[in-house]
User: Fold these one by one.
Assistant:
Number 1:
Amino acid sequence: MKDFAGWVPIRIHWKPDGLKVDWAFLDDLRFTDPFFEQTVGHCLRHPANLLFRHETSMATLAELNESSPGLPPAGFIFHGSRCGSTLISRMLAALPENVVISEASPIDAVLRSHLRDPAITEEQRILWLRGLLNALGQRRHAEEKSMFVKFDSWHTLFLPVIQRAFPSVPWIFVYREPVEVLMSQSRQRGGQMIPGVLEPAIFGWDEPSLRRMSLSEYGGRVLARIGEAALEEARAGRGRLVNYRQLPGVVWPSLMRHWGADCAEQMPETVARVCRFHAKNPALIFEDDAQAKNRAAPEGMRLFARQWLDGVYQQLETVRLAQAQSSGHAAASVENKSSPNPPLMPQS
């Protein structure tokens, strides 16, 4: 495959001779769904796109990076899960000038590749990550000028290598009151909350340690490790912390300025419209359930929150408020009282 116009890497997988890249022809299909895989699914429903796909080596990503530079990343979104990051990515995707990649499995495959093959070096992963984001950021519409990437929650633990690959890209970490996150996860657990789905080495554990944890303890400690990783990088002066309760007003124009993206003072109606619907299920009107989650949380869940998460949450809050004070952010308050945008409620 020599002409990559309209082609997008949709999967990175292992074969006996190493990692391979699957490409699909998306043509002008934009990434407007809540998640990358949903847009890919729409593409593959077309019989021609399902049948006529291409497979290349990982080296092709580096070659494309040299021959066809795409949109450089304008901003990265990291998160602790169930804290409004999908709302942010959908607000960005509502504008035709933005390419938004949300929790793409090829990115996960690159970041975790060394756990499958220890011979893969950090330098290789950095090279692959740069090539992959360049391929995902190929301009397919004339108006596109900014690319944003929302990572999976556990990718926060890969922040050092991601920052090595893209040292100048501004990033944020979104977090939420622990009991609300645990309640959301109890209703529908994310893969990172289930022991064995991810390699325990990501969190600094081994298999025997994993077997000693209950399901609840595992989930609490996973969320704590993600928060601690963000906290460490934020304390080093990198990135910006965002509390769930600041959403959606903090996005426009505060975060847009943080990312260096062009924006008017007032949030466009196309973006504001997104906030009225459920971020992960846009067919539903959003209903704020934060208070209901807090009221319904059982005492055992509150105990785990106090044991594993409350300390990290309070430290994140301390650093966030210090960041706001030092930089003069008007968005320091979780109430967003000074926001010029409509009084929309945050989403889970």
Note: The longest helix spans residues 299-327.
Number 2:
Amino acid sequence: MRYPILLLDADGTLLDFDRAEEQALKLTFQRHSLPFDGQTMAAYKEINHKLWTDFENGLISKSQILSRRFRQLFVQIGIQDELPGFEEEYQLALGEGGFLLPDAFSVCRQLYEEGCHLYILTNGVEATQLSRLERSGLNPFLSGVFVSETTGYQKPQKEYFDYVRQRIPGYEEAQALMVGDSLNSDIRGGCNAGVDTCWYNPAGKGNNSGLRPDYEIRKLTDLINVARKGEL
């Protein structure tokens, strides 16, 4: 096995975050008797994406994301009430969304059966991410889960990957591969950590980041040959 240690992103790589997010938002808005439509969804996604990007770049803390995103959204869509507890209710609803992306279960199972050690590396809220992973059915194949909230750092910080490295038995950089859909957090993070990287790019997006992943795959099934042989 070329890469017996796989460092796997969760959302957008294995878990269908878009589906979980939409379900959780709809449910939480309904519980507060608030209208929810495509415009509200789009506004939330834009605000949330900007805040998480700032977090990944070390400009704000995770707690600032959670305290700001719905406040900013409500101002934008004209909701005057503070709605205390809305974020907490959303997190609980989000934790129910353990939806998998196509082939995620079968690929993880096969890699596990072939002797790979699979580790989840994810930025997010620990309780929410652990709940979603449990519901996904992937836990039997995982050797460990590292959530930014617990580590005190986040992808792409080198300190995050140092934390991970120190807690993986027999870790060797040459045997590890970082796999994820985000150039900024996953691929940049893998480069910061000195490990090979695999960009999961199902939509065939362009890459103007200046980063050069060692591999680029369109389908998760392609990861099997990368892990086995270091080739597509």
Note: Residues 38-56 form the longest helix (19 residues).
